[in-house]
Specification:
46% of the residues lie in helices and 10% in strands. It has 22 helices and 13 strands. The strands form 3 sheets. A 6-stranded mixed beta sheet has the order 1-2-13-12-10-11, with helices on both faces. The protein has a 5-stranded parallel beta sheet with strand order 6-5-7-8-9, sandwiched between helices. Strand 1 and strand 2 form a beta hairpin. The longest helix has 22 residues. It is globular and about 75 Å long. Bound molecules: 6-O-phosphono-beta-D-fructofuranose. The site of 6-O-phosphono-beta-D-fructofuranose (F6P) has 14 residues, from loops.
Length: 545
Amino acid sequence: MTGSIRELREYPAWKALETHYENVREIHLRELFANDPTRGERMTTEAAGIYLDYSKNRITNKTFTLLMQLAEESGLRARIDAMFRGEKINITENRAVLHVALRAPKGASILVDGENVVPLVHAVLDRMADFSNRVRSGTWKGHTGKRIRNIINIGIGGSDLGPVMAYEALKHYSDRALTFRFVSNIDGTDFAEAVYDCDPTETLFIISSKTFTTLETMTNAHTARAWLLHGFGGDERSVAGHFVAVSTNRGEVAKFGIDTANMFEFWDWVGGRYSMDSAIGLSTMLAIGPDNFRALLDGFHQMDEHFRTAPFESNLPVIMGLLNIWYCNFFDAHTVAVLPYEQYLKRFPAYLQQMTMESNGKHVTLDGAEVSYHTSPIYWGEPGTNGQHSFYQLIHQGTRLIPCDFIGFSQPLNPLGRHHDVLMANVFAQAEALAFGKTLEQVKAEGTPDWLVPHRVFEGNRPSNTILADRLTPKVLGILIAFYEHIVFTQGAVWNINSFDQWGVELGKALAQRIVPELESESAPILNHDSSTNTLIRRYRKEKG
Ligand code: F6P
């Protein structure tokens, strides 16, 4: 990484943070809490149904002020306004970035190239609702007149991760008479297992692809078509009752053979990883029903409004985004762990991986200059308490600093005896243990033999945020997702990068297209790769039989 033209590192706030870091890096959270008994109440904020406790971060009042100053100097406010105004802030693709329009209420006005897109959004939502009601009530019939029992979403990346995550997250609200499956991987196992016990006469495929050209999705879609036709003795007319599409590409949908009357549209100003609240959420709406889907959108919108209007000092996504920058760029932390203490959120970390890393895994600034600072940390995680019995050892006693986001809910969806209190006790205990640890003196005082003492010491001073909401409802899920979307936005704005393109996925795709015929050809192909790739291809060809 070398210097860029408009250097973030030259901002007064950045320079001040560098000096400040040297002064505070050794301060322990024990000391910060001891010196300020109100810290745990003061360093909290609440909006749109989310309570954020950020007191267990390695920050002082001065850190907070300087981070806010950094946001101001980076022009975050102008960037937020530009997004909400529909400006083409995705400069490398010359596109507006308007996932916020997907959840704008009827009557709002957001212009793209002079056209108000909000009525378009609501027209599609109404069509989705009508379709969902018909499938859920059994009015929509398959080719033989049977009602649909199985719904299989075929898509990948943003056309899969959001739908899977939302289905799992909102299963509690879903119609249990319907079975939902999600096929993404080009590995044939994914499709084979998804249809293993499905009757084609009762199965509906949703082909979800923004471009409708993605290799994995189109391969799986063609396999699904063949599977269906096989089940209907080759009767092409069966496709109409069993295939619908979600896409921006009407032409390709028609070419595939899906009636465009059964296509649900979205637009190029919706990024794939920001599309689960567009028609890409059709499987979600089918599962939870239109009213719950609208509540989900309302949740997104509430967080949008908070992000758009709240002062930075009390703006949840701004605070969180800046804290990530503090650890990533000053403490050199490489990762962030997201740890939901809610089993229904088991796919939430996987969903966030695309949202955060495809967005902010960038090496040049908006003007194309190489950045001179790290951009996106690696996001990862698992639901608690499972992770505690797996990788938490490293978070507590390893050599790396891993800021953690703990997510918990006050009310369980499945109240069972003591379960929820014990679950939440673990949230609070983990954050407490990470922050305060256990000193050598404390370990000794417990009568631990001298040789064992170092092994049992917890140095503490490991930062975390605790995010609490009352209950995992569709609305709260929307709030939570929009919260992270805007955290990512905040980071990208400060780093001065384009969070909305993804050129980094292209090279591997192109190379795979070149290698496919080399694996498939009857005769030994002439290979012009490097010696490693050539040898691997030859070995694979020999062994595949
Ligand atoms: O992996 C790259 C990507 O373009 C993602 O950004 C996107 O979500 C995914 O592929 C799927 O694309 P599509 O919806 O066009 O099939």
